[in-house]
Amino acid sequence: MKNVDHVSDMRIKDDNVAEIFTHYYYKLYKYTIYRVGDHDTTEDLVSEVFEKVVAKYSTYNPRKAKLSTWLYAIANNTIINYHKKKHACDPINPEYKRFGRSIEESVIENETREYLLKALMQLDERSRNVIALKFGAGITNREIAQMLDLTETNVGTILYRSLRHLREELIDSGIFN
């Protein structure tokens, strides 16, 4: 597979859209689930992101930003618009189907994920965005800092405080000791 994040100086071509989708779908999905906490909504929003990518790919300029930065900016704006329309986000119990696990393990895992999503929804938007970029999308602190116009130190501080807050929430809910 070509390195789809380093598209040449030419604009994205039609034949690259499928490759971009394949490479970035799961990353954008993980980023979005951290931000909205609902699988059905996440699927809808990621689909909307790729609709925008197809409609606007001719406007992408690799000299201005990396492809991943452009995609996450579209995703971020799509999520912000969703929140503006909805005015609230109600996390639900995600349904994960894991094979080879006992029912008890699956129930405990789903319950833990539910508490984590609820705790994530209690963070402020900026902290949730940094967490989503770091753990959902797997982006480095340096790239997050560039995307959000923060210092790398500030990103690290936000991550530390957010993770501490999430840990405290999970301890209070009895998930961790």
General description of the model:
This protein is an all-alpha fold and 177 residues long. It contains 7 helices and no strands. The protein has 2 domains: 90 residues, RNA polymerase sigma factor, region 2, helix turn helix motif (Rna Polymerase Sigma Factor, Chain: A), CATH 1.10.1740; 76 residues, Winged helix-like DNA-binding domain superfamily/Winged helix DNA-binding domain (Arc Repressor Mutant, subunit A, Orthogonal Bundle), CATH 1.10.10.10. Helix content is 69%, strand content 0%. Helix 1 runs antiparallel to helix 2, helix 1 packs across helix 3 and helix 5 crosses helix 7. About 10% of the residues have low confidence.
Keywords:
single chain; 2 domains; Rna Polymerase Sigma Factor, Chain: A; Arc Repressor Mutant, subunit A; 69% helix; globular; mainly alpha; 177 residues
**CATH homologous superfamily designation of the largest domain:** RNA polymerase sigma factor, region 2, helix turn helix motif
CATH topology of the largest domain: Rna Polymerase Sigma Factor, Chain: A
Inertia-based shape: globular
Low-confidence stretches: 6-11, 88-99
Domains (count): 2
Work out the number of β strands: 0
Mean pLDDT: 78
Q: Which percent bin holds the helix content?
A: 55-70%
**Rg over C-alpha atoms, rounded to the nearest angstrom:** 17 Å
CATH class of the largest domain: Mainly Alpha
Largest sheet: none
DSSP strand content? under 5%
List the helices and strands and how they pair.
Layout lengths: L13 H23 L2 H18 L10 H20 L16 H20 L2 H12 L4 H8 L3 H21 L5
Helix pairs in contact: 1-2, 1-3, 1-5, 2-3, 4-7, 5-7, 6-7
